[in-house]
Amino acid sequence: MESFWELTARELSDKLRRGECSAVEVARACLDRIAAEDATVRAFLSVEPDWALSQAEEVDRRRRAGESLGPLAGVPVAVKDNLCVQGRVTSCASRMLAHFRSPYDATVVDRLLKAGAIIVGKTNLDEFAMGGSTETSAFQFTRNPWDVERIPGGSSGGAAACVAARMVPLSVGSDTGGSIRQPAALCGISGLKPTYGRVSRFGLVAFASSLDQIGPLAQSAEDCALLLEVLAGHDPRDATSLDRPVPRYASELEGAIKGLRIGWVPEHFTEGLDGEVGEAVREALRIYEDLGAELVEVASPHARYAVAAYYIIAPSEASSNLARYDGVHYGYRTDEKAMLADLEEERRLLRESGDEAALEEIDSALVRLYRRSRAGGFGAEVKRRIMLGTYALSAGYYDAYYLKALKVRRLIRQDYDRAFSQVDVIAGPVTPSPAFRLGEKTSDPLAMYLFDLYTVGANLAGLPAMAIPCGFSREGLPIGLHLQAPALEEVRLLRAAHALQRNTDWHRRRPGSHIAARSELRG
Amino acid sequence: MAISEQEIRKVALLARLELTPEEARLMATQLSRVLEYMELLNSVDTQGVEPLALAVEVTNVLREDRVTPGLDRESALANAPHRDDECYRVPAVLGET
After folding, report:
1. ipTM score of the complex?
2. Considering only CB atoms, which chain A residues are within 8 Å of B12?
3. Spatial separation of the C-alpha atoms in residues A96 and A98, rounded to whole Å
4. CB contact under 8 A, A374 and B76
5. B contacts of A130 (beta carbons < 8 Å)
6. Helix B5-14 with A380-393: angle, nearest 10 deg
7. Whether the Cβ atoms of residue A318 and residue A130 lie closer than 8 Å to each other
8. pLDDT tens figures, A499-513
9. Architecture of domain A10-266+429-522 in this structure
10. Relative to the CA of A333, which of A93, A249, A348, A520 has its CA 20 to 30 Å away?
C-alpha cells in the first residue's frame, strides 16, 4: 500500500472523501513524516501536533455526522510564518517577532480552515521574506531536500522544501519578487504567484504592499489549482482585493495546447544563464511545440532594468511598512535601563568635553529606544533594505531613485502588454542557475539580488506567473520552467502547466529520504 | 553612486536604526555597490512616462459608514513589551535634560 505522504493533495482528498482513510490517520502520518524528515531539512519553524490532530478529529466527526465538508477536508497544509494564525506565533523568521502572537487569522488561514484543511505548522523564510535563500532567517537554515548542502531558495524556502521532501502535500507561501516561484523551481515542485489582488493580503505581514501576493506551492499544477481555488476571492478587509468571480481552477485544467501561442524572450537565454538550465527550458518549449503550441519570439526591451527598479521600489515600500516595529506596540524591545544608562553616559561625556552642538543633537530617550530596539530586532538584510529604501525616499533622492523606478515599472508593464497582444503565455527560465550552496552568496547582496532577474517582472506588472519542474542538472538538482500570463489568466497558466505535467514526469520525481542523511550528519 | 559613512549615519537616523561603526562601514560599501548598479536606470528614457505605483489600477471603494467592532484593547495590548492596564509604556519624553 502506498504511504499517505506519497500522495498528492487530490489523491488524498479523494481517498478521504471515499472513506478509505480518516483525517486523523492522515494527520498522524504527516506528523510522523515531518518528525523523520525535518530534523535534517528544517523547513518548519513550528509544528502543531495537538492542534493538527484536533482539527483532523473535527473533520472526521463531521464526516461521520454526514455534514458537508470543504474541498480540502482532512488535507494537511503548511503555512509560511509571515501569515497570521490567531493565538499562535507569527515570527517572520525575525527576532523582532519571535514572541508575537497574532490577534487574528489571515484571510487565507480563515479560508483554509473553512475548507477543512489541516494546518500542521508554519514554515521558515528569509527574515520578513527579504532574501532568496532562506539564509536570512534569524532562527535556522533550511536545506534543499535534493542536496542538503544547498539552499532551498527563498523567501518561501521552508514552504517549498516541506513539499519537496513530501512532508505535506500543500503549502502556502508569499511572492514579492519571486519568493514562491524561485524556491519551487530550486526544490523541484510547482508554485504559483497569482495576479495582484486575486488573493487577499489581510493578515500577511507586509513587506512591499504593491508587490506582495499569496499563492500555492504543491507537487503539481493540479494541486496548485485545488489550493488556489480555496485561497482566491474578494475580501473587504484588503482594499486592493479584486472583486471578480473565482474560476473553478481545478475543473478547468484540461484543454488542448494546440494553437497556444507561447512567447519566449531571446534575452532570457543569453548572458548569465546556466547552460543546463537553458537546455532544460528549451526542451520544455520543444515539448509544447510537439503538443501543437506555436513558439513566438517576443521582445522585452526593459526586462534588463527590472532588478534595478525592483530593488528601489521593494525596499522603499519595506522601509515604510517596517516603520511600525518600534519596540513599543509589539515585538522586540531593547533593555530600557541599559539604554537609558548608556544615553546618560554619552550626555555626560559630551558635557565634559563641552561639545554643545553634539549635545543638542543627541537622540531623545524615545528615539534611542526605537533605534536600539530596531537594531536588536532586525537582521542584516532587513537593515540593508530599510536603509536602501529610506535613502531612495529621502529628500533630494526621491525623484532620481523612487520616481524613476516607478516610471521604469510602467515601461516594463507596457512591454508585457505588447507581448501579450502577440502571445498567450510567456515561457522561460525561473532562475539563472540551479540551487547554489549555503553561504555562497551571503557576503554579496547584489549577487543575491541579481538572482531574481527573471521573476521580479511579474510582480512589478502584477501578473500571474508559475514555476514548474522541467528537468534536472547533471548534479541532480531541479530546474524550473517559468510561465507568465496576462492579469487574471491563472486558468491559462494552470492549463499550460498541467499539459506539460501530463506529458513529462519531472514533477513526480522526489528526493531521497533524509533519515539516513541525518544519522550521517550525527556520525 | 558612492554613499559616504556620514550619509549612512544620517539615513540611519531617518530609518530609526542604530548602527555600530563597523556596521556603518559595511553598509556604506554594500549600498554603494547596489546604488552603482541602479545607475543602469539612468540609461532609460522616461520622458513623459507616468509613474506606476500599483500594477493593477484599482478604483476607490466605498463602504457604508457603519460602526463595527475592531480589535479590543486587551488584544491590542497583549503583545506589548511594556504596558500598564490600558496603555503602552515608553520612556519619559518630557523633562529630558
Report:
1. 0.95
2. 371, 387
3. 6
4. no
5. none
6. 90
7. yes
8. 999 999 999 999 998
9. Alpha-Beta Complex (3.90)
10. A348
